Fold these 3 entries.
Entry 1:
Amino acid sequence: MNKRVQHYLDLIVVLTQKEIKVRYKNSVFGYLWSIGHPLAFAFVFFIAFKVVMKVQMEDYTLFLIAGLFPWQWFSNSVNAAPTVFWGNASLIKKVNFSRHILPVATVLQDTIHFILSIPVIVFFMFIYNKPISLSWLYGIPLLLAIQFLLTYGVSLMVSSINLFFRDLERLTVILTTLLFYFTPIIYPETMVPERYKFLVIDINPLSALMVSWRNLFLNGTLEPASLIVSFVYSVLAFVLGYTVYRKLSWKFAEVI
Amino acid sequence: MSECIIVFNDVSKSYPIYHHITGGIKNFLFHLPKALSSVKNSRFVALKDVSFKVNQGETLGIIGENGAGKSTMLGLIAGVLKPSKGEVIVKGRISPLLELGAGFHPELTGRENIMLNGVLLGLTRSDVLKKIDEIIDFSELDEFIDQPIRTYSSGMLARLGFSVASSLNPEILLIDEILAVGDKLFQKKSKEALLKLINGGVTTVFVSHDLESVKEICHRAIWLDHGKVRAEGEPGKVVEQYKIML
Ligand SMILES: Nc1ncnc2c1ncn2[C@@H]1O[C@H](COP(=O)(O)OP(=O)(O)OP(=O)(O)O)[C@@H](O)[C@H]1O
Ligand SMILES: [Mg+2]
């Protein structure tokens, strides 16, 4: 293989390994912590909507989990993005390497966590007596690729801009929280009132993707229309993120 | 005549003064007109019309007061900074000697950090694996090499850093005040290792406030004063001129 390509891949591998090792530190519970977070969320929403408010939906726990796990991946990566370049300040100041690989490593790390959490979804499917579909075999890789591109684009943009506007970090937390409630994750898209459909479903770049994940997990279905919409949004996010990065990256070492 | 490895042609570097921006979005928006004009107008000139060349195998010393622009110059050579004016030409693989612990992660072991650093500095993983034993030998860290480096003393960290940077067969070595850390023994050892690299033909740019080392190690020296080259030539002479000014 070409030496440059090899080196590029090695950079991704080494930096991702670093992220994973640092996140798990030496704790045996590292993996458990990473699935514990979305499970705790699912528990909270279950109590709120099923136990207290008695919303009429069958298999609500499963419904929650199938949406919360992929969401958690997006949200973890984007909320970690502001510190990606800051956390490597000394490197950015001294070594000239492709800095856009740093967010690749953090997003890839969360991708791996998400993949490792799929058995938990399988476990709940088993408890609820739901069959697992063969369509997962091509559906999961497809949605993985789309969500990776989307998450990376957003992360690259956030991490680059945050070097210049440091309070973007707080804004990111607020915006992802807002986005969470504006995305059909704890409620089905069918329950969204007609007049809000445009806001919640159509122009929200996460909606089609999150709904696709859930339908894939719960019913084994993959709707081409949603797939195309989420793909278009992810390409847009990537192009936007990379453009911002290209415009700003030569100044990184000056402002850091 | 040997080949020029580093060339600066009339290089200037100015920094925008980013106060209004790093104060955050809120500050930036509340003081928008002022902020925009400050971005445009207030620039701090760190290097002004600097020209010089470094030949293959040569060791160039850079001296000057704090804030004279020495680290800026190294940043330009390393390619992490872009000149505002002029042209910087650098041929060859660069190994910046990182500050204590820079580029190292405290939770990773010495061995893992060697891999991380090697790849960051431009080698592939298999290249690093081929050299890793040599690097570990040189560092004399023995069994500590598989401990997380947060448990290392600063001397041990310096050893690790120096071993990585010097074992990677860099073509260009950039050194910014690194030899001052560590105990006397380590300083002596790293100076010897550095001399060995220099004698082996690596092109070096050596920034230091330790004027004696500059005289001892360098073939040529430049005195930077407020971003301008004040004197250039034989290290002994340049250091003398600089001392008179102090
Ligand atoms: N990123 C930056 N943004 C704005 N100004 C900067 C930046 N980096 C350096 N400067 C300014 O440029 C000047 C030169 O800085 P530089 O770090 O090159 O000095 P130096 O010669 O290495 O000093 P020292 O001996 O203290 O290490 C300083 O006045 C500094 O304030
Ligand atoms: Mg300096």
Entry 2:
Amino acid sequence: MRDQLLRVSVWRGADEGRLVAYEVPARPSQTVLDVVTYIQRRLDPSLAYRFACRVGMCGSCAMTVNGIARWTCRTHVERVAKNSAIEIRPLANLQVIRDLVTDMTPFFEKWRRAEGRFVPATTPARDFAKVPPASRERRAADAGIECIGCGVCYASCDVVAWDPDYLGPAALNRAWTLVNDVRDGGNSDRLRAVAGDAGCHACHSHQSCALRCPKALDPTASIAGLKRVAARATLRGEL
Amino acid sequence: MTARGEARLWLAQRAAGILLALAVAVHLATILYAVHRGLSAAAILARTRGNAAWLAFYLVFAAAAALHGGIGLRTVIREATAWRDRSLDLATAAFIVLATLAGWRAAAALFA
Ligand code: SF4
Ligand code: SF4
Ligand code: FES
């Protein structure tokens, strides 16, 4: 029996470029990343793309599949192909380096700008911090902690598209997990970093990020949390 | 603008929004009442002239509308255009003051 063929168009080039058509044999349980790998191994070795873990942990394989940002290693072709056709482009809202590879530098740079790193409280720890798993802070941090840094939310956010300075859902979600980390001592700087028009106050709460996040996180809720904390700090004159 | 300034604007807009939600409800109810009763302009003026409660209500209503709309307009302009610097903040402040004054003038005309 002849293989059933998928018609795949793939973005080739950088910010300027074009879609190139390939035919790839359909396989059961095939992922979009399998399709891209097939093209690179069998049809055109010059195709550039990123992946590492293939099991949804590393966050490196995100692309735009039929117009929607997805983690390609965990996206089955059957679920997204329309009449055996798929269109694969690089992530939106980032500059394209080549083909399906985007420059993630601004994305991670914004994590830094949002004070997304742990800052130990200044008093030297005498003992292990005890964080009750059921406490409000721990639960809030837990809800956002599983981010794999894939950039799917960032590519799906309209405000990022409008305002290149906007920190975006992932960086703000990261900041929120740290705001809720009782061992962290960096919150006054962090709040100043995430408040304002380039930060949490720019979010429209329209939840594209939450809808698309492959880890089912809810950056919108994290950002709403930041707005609440920032409002409280403003009223207390602490911001 | 500083993060503190932005956060204050955001709070002010939310607070004005809450006031507006109440004020618009009262305003609509008043309109429905007036239309239902078939009140003439003169009859309406007879009720509002010299009435300090209505004056206060409309002064607050107009200021809240100007504040809420002005801050929102600034946000829309910042998002949709490249106008983002200090001059936008000054234009926003001017808009809020002018819109408030226009509203207050109308409120004063109902009172006196
Ligand atoms: S909810 Fe906020 S962060 Fe998420 S996509 Fe919308 S504007 Fe972007
Ligand atoms: S929040 Fe979700 S979509 Fe955004 S980077 Fe993290 S895992 Fe990816
Ligand atoms: S390859 Fe690691 S998440 Fe897809």
Entry 3:
Amino acid sequence: MAHIEVDDIHVYYGNIRALQGISFKVEKGAIVTLIGANGAGKTTTLNALSGILGLREGSIHIGDTNISDFMPHQLIPKGIVHVPEGRRIFARLSVDDNLAMGAFTRNDKAELSKDREYVLEMFPRLRERLDQTAGTLSGGEQQMLAIGRALMSKPDVLLLDEPSMGLAPVLVEQVFNSIIDINKTGVTCMLVEQNAYMALQIASYGYVLEGGRIALEGVAQELAKNEEIKKAYLG
Amino acid sequence: MAFNIVASSFEQKYIERSQWHMTGMTGFIFGFVALYFNFVGLMTQFMERWIIEGVLTLAHLTIMGVALFGGVTIAIRSKNLSAAGKVANGAAVGAMIGIALSLLMLFMTQLDIRFMFVALSNKLFLFLSWKQGLEGGITLQIVLSAALGALGALIVVMPKVLRRPLIWGLSAVFIVGLFSELIQLVMQYEFILGFRDWFFTWEGQRVQGAMVVFVVSFSAMLFWTIRGGAVKERFGQLSPSGQKSIRYFGWACALILFLLFPAAAGSFFGQVMMYVGLFILMGMGLNLELGLAGLLDLGFVAFFAAGAYTIALFTGEHELQILLLDRPLTWWEALPLAVLVSVAIGFMFGIPVLKVRGDYLAVATMGLGEIIRVVVLSDMAAPLLGGSQGMLHIPRPSLFGWELNDPIYLFYLTLVCASVAGYFAWALENSRLGRAWMAIREDEDVGQALGINLVNVKLLAYGLGAAFAGLAGAIFAVMLTSIFPHSFQLLISINILALLIVGGLGSLPGVVVGAAMLIGTPELLREFGEYRFLAYGAVLIAMMRIKPIGLWPSAARKREIQSAEEIEASIREQMEEEGQRT
Ligand SMILES: Nc1ncnc2c1ncn2[C@@H]1O[C@H](COP(=O)(O)OP(=O)(O)OP(=O)(O)O)[C@@H](O)[C@H]1O
Ligand SMILES: [Mg+2]
């Protein structure tokens, strides 16, 4: 059974229709990417998934739980965590406190410190800067912190919104490598990207969003070869 | 590097070109301040008040102080001048102030404008001219102000060994003189009466008293400036545990002195300190809401009122309470009720503004606060809450059959309550809930995405914040034994907000310092009537310019400022590097 199943969702901002009937599936333990141009509705889709936006029609299932009407804070206990667009770390708190906030709902101290260790191993630059105010981190470090903070909740599903935004190519590679690593531990990843080339390299399956509709879908490697996509997104 | 050189040389040139401009500007501003004091009638009032009896009034000191500070300011600002140059410029600034005052004198003799400015009286003229007539007065005023300006500059340029003791000595004389009435109130005991009367009269301090104060504080500071380093070194050589015990001993002594002070000093001080205590309590409550959770609340006074009215309802002789209970509750029994009612009002308060953020929240909560005040005032609630007549005859609490009827007892009651509440505030700050508050303060959406239940956490912020105010209200009700709606004005919410910001938002010690500064000081200066709020306003402006993060900021805020400075430094470095490359 699919881990995430989105069935024909319609999302509106007031009267403006942003998503007009989107359906997709993410298998357990997969990396699936959602690509598309600016304003296609990628962020809207993720926000609908994580309960920030309500659905006008359609449904979202995680495993066999219908989460269509969940409030955002109810998703963490279901193992879903959202790394929002533009990182949005807690700029005035220290790096350490940011990580602690990620584990807000957890009580298992021993497990928690193990996970913290795991995050700091994955991003050694964060370990060097534990006491630094998060707002003073570089863009790349902030992205690492945002992912690290999300991992502190020990998720089964990671929703990533444009983790490569504004990063130098070297850093993009680093971040994407860490996504692969995270995925290897069994975490299902839903990756929203404009950097279609990179995203299709690490994903197994991809969806192309256009004007609030799925325009195209397929196995990632094949999408990467698709002429239309090459023209539109890969340049 | 290149960039930096350009910048600094530009700066230098700018300063060189504008020394005249700067001196002129400083003189102009301080001259304006001196005139302003005269026009608003501050001088007329201060003339009545001796600092050193028969020698100097507060008015003399104020007008001389303006010239002195003019000199200090220009000496600090002109960094590139020699010592002599600074003194000369100080004299110039002083002279300008003297000229401003002279113009005022001329003005007063030539035109009769008392119908517009009541303060410009004959007495003021005599004061300004030192009773020397117009010409003599003008000469004297200009010379004296110039001398004072020069003295101010001189204080800045003189060596530290002299400067520090001098400043301390002068300030001590001034402060003792300013508070001489209060100090005499404290020295109420038989065995020091003789000593007191040698030092003071009820008009001010005697010359001999002022001299002793000056000599003692001057020499104490002189000793410390010369030998202080050695003392610190000796202290540093002690074993860490020895240092610790000395430090603890010091703190313990300070605590005991503080605890005994109101009992020894009398009711007036008990009253003032208790009033400060109430604001500390409320400050801690608003600090939870604003400092931790970032929810700006201008209706906070409503919770204070809720606590006070609950006590009045349940402890006084009142129809409703007779209906519900067979006897009035004691204050202690009603106290938890008062807190609970405030919490309930806090929750109710939170619900309509759950989705309101930032500046809009300030306005919305202000509206809620006003609604509660108007409801209390209304005829509808009058049978219950007494309308504008208020509620009278609230019985005082008693402990072991002993009625707490003196402000001093109530101060100790406040102190105990504030300590307990302070512990809770501290524990909350470091709890899971405290962290949740901080998270939603930083970013509501992300906080939610990390599993924080926004509704619960926000309502808890309002409810628990209100608990502190309810406690304060419960004490307030028995302070005067009667309460009126007009005691619960918007101004109280604003004062609490101001004391939080002056103390340092999000910092518990900051609440105490801010309350002492903004609530305690004006209470002590009651004899100056409305004029003390002139000082209050000036302090607020000065504070926000000089130390916007507050007097005792929280560790986190300090770190923030520090890292902001680090960022600036790194940007500067980058610019320098770029400059080198080009
Ligand atoms: N709060 C909002 N109110 C009204 N319209 C919105 C709002 N947020 C997004 N939209 C609109 O919805 C559409 C989809 O936006 P969305 O943010 O999902 O795009 P995106 O695919 O994430 O784009 P990008 O790659 O630039 O982040 C856009 O047309 C946008 O203008
Ligand atoms: Mg987007």
